[in-house]
Specification:
Blueprint lengths: L7 E7 L4 E7 L5 E5 L5 H11 L2 E6 L5 H4 L2 H8 L3 E4 H6 L3 H11 L9 E3 L4 E4 L2 E7 L8 E5 L2 E5 L2 E2 L2 E2 L9 H12 L7 E4 L9 E2 H7 L1 H4 L5
Parallel strand pairs: 3-4, 4-5, 5-6, 10-13
Antiparallel strand pairs: 1-2, 2-3, 7-8, 8-9, 9-10, 11-12, 13-14
Bound molecules: zinc ion (2 copies).
One zinc ion binds next to loops.
């Protein structure tokens, strides 16, 4: 086995909210996960085919409707389970939350997940070990996925910013605690892959965010 091959990562901005959808694949087996399919399903399917990938799971970073928009169609087309943290799966199944969240985002909330994830779960895909890091704050069940030194952050951490906490279930205090206790403790060279392209570059590192991200420099490292 050639261990010098790098993890395959495709970053694709999709849908009405330009969510960053990711395909992450094992370079040895081409088995893959699809993170936050945000609509434009045919575009995603074409890319999977062009790259010769075998998608094993759909992983949601959280339950906001823009990040789960392609779940239903792609789950059927690819015949794979949808995975979400148990806290968001529970939260977004509450009828009152569903109604409020629909109004806030203008799109329907997610269907129930097939697999409920917990903090520190490891998902094996080819030679990749995908670690689930529970980072509540943007939503109660927001997670980041750590894959071979790459952190897929959803709306927890952006390049130079962090997720909003004014939507239902959000908490700035909890978000800051997640950033402090779970993310900035990661190796400095960890690559940051955000859920939206809100910064001056589409990717970053933990080191750069610790120097330039005001949520970290002004609220945590003071
Ligand atoms: Zn969100
Ligand atoms: Zn988002």
């Amino acid at each position: 086995m050639n261990m010098t091959l790098k993890t395959i990562i495709k970053q694709i901005p999709l849908g009405p909210f330009q969510v960053m959808t990711y395909l992450v694949a094992c370079p040895h087996t081409r088995e893959a996960v699809l993170i936050d399919p945000a609509g434009e399903e045919n575009k995603i399917l074409d890319l999977i085919q062009a790259q010769g990938l075998k998608v094993k799971y759909i992983l949601n970073t959280h339950g906001h409707s823009d990040h789960v928009l392609g779940n239903a169609k792609l789950k059927e087309a690819l015949n794979v389970p949808v995975c979400m943290h148990e806290a968001d799966d529970r939260f977004f199944s509450d009828p009152a939350v569903r109604e409020k969240s629909s109004k806030e985002l203008g799109l329907p909330p997610p269907d129930p997940a097939d697999i409920r994830l917990k903090d520190e779960d490891i998902i094996e895909v080819g030679t990749l070990n995908i670690k689930v890091i529970h980072t509540p704050g943007h939503t109660p069940g927001s997670v980041c996925y750590l894959i071979d030194g790459n952190l897929f952050c959803g709306d927890t951490l952006f390049v130079g910013a962090a997720g909003r906490t004014d939507l239902i279930g959000g908490s700035l205090e909890t978000l800051l605690e997640s950033l402090e206790k779970r993310l900035i403790v990661l190796p400095k060279e960890t690559m940051v892959w955000p859920g939206h392209d809100y910064g001056d570059t589409p990717t970053s590192t933990i080191a750069r965010e610790m120097e330039e991200n005001l949520y970290i420099t002004d609220f945590i490292l003071i």
